[in-house]
Write the structure tokens for this entry.
Amino acid sequence: MTRAPKARSRTASRVAAVQALFQSEQAPESAETVIDQFVRHRLGDLPGTDGFEDGRVPDAEVPLFSRVVRSAVLQQDTIDRMLTEALPDDWPLARLDPVLRALLRAGGAELMMAGGPPPKVVINEYLDVARGFFTGPETGIANAVLDRLARLLQPDAF
């Protein structure tokens, strides 16, 4: 008998990807270094804990997490150009909260992936992630920017 999938494991993967991209930008570490650190120290359950202590993401799927982080880093220049065009002129990318910037890069990377989930799913997932990090206007900014990217990258889905 196979074990049922953990609740919201794909969302947890995206949370971990945002955290890893934030860490990579703050520390400047390579994507592979950060992925390795997360897989060894931040993803999965620790025996005797509730799972989310010390920034752990117990339910994350390593393949999705790794794919999003790698894609976001490898395509960062392209994603950043698209984000700059999608943001209002008075909100340059560098002015954004670094967690929001990481979230938009992760969402942009996933919207660019061939064979990924439908864009509306990607947008909704990253809005759920944004609500976990922010209580202000950042969620609305994420929605508007990711919607604009999705319509540019996958117009047939709308």
Observations:
- The two ends are 39 Å apart (CA to CA).
- Confidence is low (pLDDT under 50) at residues 1-5.
- The chain has one domain: 9-152.
